[in-house]
Amino acid sequence: MNTSSHDTAAALLPLVGGPANVTSVAHCMTRLRLGLADASLVDGDGVRAVPGVLGVVEDDDTYQIVLGPGVVTTVTRAFEALLLKRSQQQRNATPAKLLLRRLANIFVPLIPALIGCGVLAGLNGLLLNLGRLPGVTPALSVISGAFMSLIAVFVGHNTAKEFGGTPVLGGAVAAIVVYPGVANVTAFGVPLAPGQGGVLGALAAALLGTYVEKWCRGRAPAALDVLITPTVTVLTAGLGTLYVLMYAAGTVSSAIGTASNWLLTTTGAFAGLALGGLFLPLVMLGLHQALIPIHATLIEQQGHTILLPVLAMAGAGQVGAAIAVYVRLRHDTSMRTTIKSALPAGLLGVGEPLIYGVSLPLGRPFLTACVGGAAGGAFVGLFAMLGTKVGATAIGPSGWALFPLLAGGAGGLWRTAAIYAGGLLTGYAVGFATTYVFGGLPTTGKSRPAPESR
Questions:
Q1: Which residues are CB-neighbours of 452 under 8 A, at least 6 positions away?
Q2: What angle, rounded to 10 degrees, do the helices at 95-107 and 151-162 form?
Q3: Which of 349, 344, 294, 354 lies closest to 321, judged by CA?
Q4: Which residues in 244-267 are b (16+ Cβ under 10 Å) and which e?
Q5: Average pLDDT, 10 consecutive residues per value, the chain (454 residues)
Q6: Torsion angle, CA of 13/158/296/354, rounded to 10 degrees?
Q7: From the centroid of its chain, how far is CA 384?
Q8: Which of 56, 66, 356, 388 is 20 to 30 A from 282, comparing alpha carbons?
Q9: How distant is the alpha carbon of residue 112 from its chain centre?
Q10: Backbone angles phi, psi at 247, to 5 degrees
C-alpha cells in the first residue's frame, strides 16, 4: 500500500470522529465521501490542515474531503483498511440530497466503461471518416457499442443495489427494456420498440422491482421465499415495465432530447452563457452528479451529449482565473505552489483542486472564473445556433481530455474540435482577464511580504 496514502488516511480518521463515527465510505473522481453518525465530532480545521487535503464540502448527507484525482482512490482504500467495519445505516438527509447521492451511486460506477467505449467510438468514427483500416472498424464498432446496447441492465443492477434490492433481479427487470422481443408488445395502442425509455426506463423498472421484492419478502413463507419472491418480482415489475414504464420513460427521454436540441439550436449563445457560468457552483456543491442521467439519456438516444462540451467551459474559466492569480500573486509562494500542482488536473477538466485550493478561498476569483466559463459556453452555444453542435460520446472527462470523445457535427469532426478548442481558449482568456482586472487581488508589490526585523 502506498505509504503516503496510508499516512493521509491515518491522519484523517481521528479527525472525523474515529471509526465509530464513520457509517460509510465512498469516493468519486476527486472526493473522499464519508457518512458520519455525528458531524459535530469532526475537527474541520484539522482535516483542512492535513497535507494533501485540497478542501472540504459539508452537507447533511456526506462529509466530502477533496483530495484530487488518483490520490483519492488510494487514500480511500487505505481509509477503508483502517476501519473495523463499514456500517450501512441510514443517514440523516433531506430527500433531495439523498436522491442526488443515490443517483450518483447508480451512475458514477458506469463512467469508466462510458469513457473507454466512448474513446473507442470516437476512434472508430475517425477511421471511418478517413476511410482507413476497413477490416478493423467493424470490430471497433462492436466493442464500443456493446456496453451502450446493454447499459440498461447495468443501471438496473446498480439501482436495485442502491435501494436495497437484489441486484441481479434489478438487472433482469431492466433487461426487458432492451430485449428485442418487446417489439411484439403493444402499450397504449402503440407497439413498443427495444430500448424505448432507455436508462430512465431501466431505472424505473428496477426501482419498481425492488419495492415488489421487499413487499414479497415480508409475506412469502420462508420455505417458499426462494421461489415466490423472484418470480413475483420479475413478473409484476416486468408487466409494469412493459405496459406503463417503457411508454412513460420513452416520452420523458424524447422530451429531454428535444428540449436539449431546441435549447442550443434556438437560444444557443444565451443557453451556453447560463450553463457555462453556473456549472462551477454546481460542482462546488456536488450537485453536478444530478446531470449524469440526462447525459446518459442523450448518449443512448443520440450517440452523444451536447450539454457536456458547454458545461466543460466552466473548467476553462477556472483555469484562466488560476493563471491570473499565479501571475498576480508573484510573491505568494504557497498559492503559486498550489496552482502549479492543481493546474494539470484543471487542464484535463478536474476542477475541484483549483476551486477549493485557489479560487474559492480567494473569493472574487471564483466569480470571475464563472464569467470565463460563461464566455466559453456562449462561444460553443453560438456555433450550435449556426448549425454546428459539439457533442461528447461519453461523460466524465472534460477540458483537453474531452477531445478524443468529441462527436462531429455539421462540417465534420475537425470543425467540431476547432469549435471546442475555441471555446476553451475563450474561457481561458476571459477567465484570466476578468480575474486579473476584477479579481480583487493585490498588486505584485503589495503581495510582497514585509521584511523581517533583524
A1: none
A2: 140
A3: 354
A4: ebbbebbeebeebbeebeebbbee
A5: 73 88 83 86 89 84 84 84 55 64 84 84 79 88 89 94 91 94 89 90 95 86 84 95 92 89 89 92 78 87 90 94 92 88 86 85 92 96 90 85 80 85 96 92 51 36
A6: 0
A7: 23
A8: 388
A9: 11
A10: -65, -45
Q: What is the pLDDT, as a whole number, of residue 409?
A: 64
Q: Which residues contact 270 (CB under 8 A, 6 or more apart)?
A: 378, 381
β partners of residue 26: 33
Where helices occur in 218-359 by DSSP H, the ranges are 225-240, 246-285, 292-302, 308-311, 313-328, 333-347, 352-354
Catalytic annotation present for 28: yes
**CA-to-CA separations, 364 to 161, 360, 440, in angstroms, rounded:** 42, 8, 6
Q: Using CA atoms, how far apart are residues 276 and 315, in angstroms rounded to an integer?
A: 9
Cα–Cα distance for residue pair 81/88, rounded to 1 Å: 16
The 10 Å Cβ neighbour count of residue 341 is 13
Residue 223's identity, in one-letter code, is: A
Query: Which amino acid is residue 358, in one-letter code?
Result: V
Cell representation of residue 51: 497535507
- Residue 44 cell numbers, joined: 474541520
Strands 63-66 and 31-36: antiparallel
Write down the catalytic residue from 28, 117, 216, 370: 28
Task: List C-alpha distances in Å: 299 to 263, 351, 433.
Answer: 17, 23, 35
DSSP 449: P
In the chain, the domains with their CATH numbers are 3-93 (3.30.1360.60), 109-255 (no CATH), 272-438 (no CATH)
pTM: 0.72
Distances (CA, A) of 218 to 161, 225, 248, 413: 18, 9, 29, 56
Measured at the CA of 58, the angle between CA 351 and CA 44, to 5 degrees, comes to 100
The neighbour count for residue 214, using CB atoms within 10 Å, is 14
Q: Comparing C-alpha atoms, which of 398, 397, 418 is closest to residue 409?
A: 418
Cα 380 from Cα 161, distance rounded (Å): 38
256: cell is: 429531454
The SS3 call for residue 65 is strand
DSSP character for 409? B
Single-letter code of the amino acid located at 158: N
Helix axes 246-285, 313-328, angle to 10 degrees: 0
